[in-house]
Write a structure and sequence with these properties.
Blueprint (H helix, E strand, L loop, with lengths): L1 E8 L9 E8 L6 H11 L19 E4 L2 E4 L12 E5 L6 E3 L2 E2 L2 H9 L9 H5 L9 H5 L12 H5 L1 H5 L5 H12 L14
Helix pairs in contact: 2-7
Amino acid sequence: MKVTFKIWRYDPAKDVKPYFQDYTFDVKEGMTVLDCLYYIKENIDATLAFRASCRMGICGSCAMYINKKPRLACETQALSLGTDVIEIAPLPNYKNIKDLVPDLTPLFEKHKNVKPYIIPENEQEFLNPTGEYSQTPVELEEYLQFAYCIKCGACLAACPTVGTTPDFPGPQALAQAYRYNADNRDFGEKERKIQ
């Protein structure tokens, strides 16, 4: 099926403002949006910039706006979008470095600020343990779903409060704060107080 990809282009070294550029080619069943971006880069336009790594929905590098929704390009089947025009832009609520590459520095700074690690009650015992820090399955369930975050940044892109209030920690940092506060091995809730 012939599909037109309308792709956000912006090179701060030469462009006054961003613009969309069209690329049309045959997309085969099973091709992801990321496969299509690689096809464009390897066969049509080597100047296209985007971020990707694992191709398996684990690293979060390929998060971008696909048809006006934040998605992982490696997990989004191009033909499953049900259209012959696919618009791709960088995640909003971030500075645009180049083309489809957002500056994720705010995401990582907000993550770092919530102290995303176990803060022990007794640091000496934690550094030189005399026993295990075991958990029951029930204790693990208290926070497990919040431990699956891959830090792709899509939640901050979709959050209207982040868009209007840059100091707001956002869903990723708040979820990570909860993940550690809910961990029975952690005693850092007061240090992690979100302002």
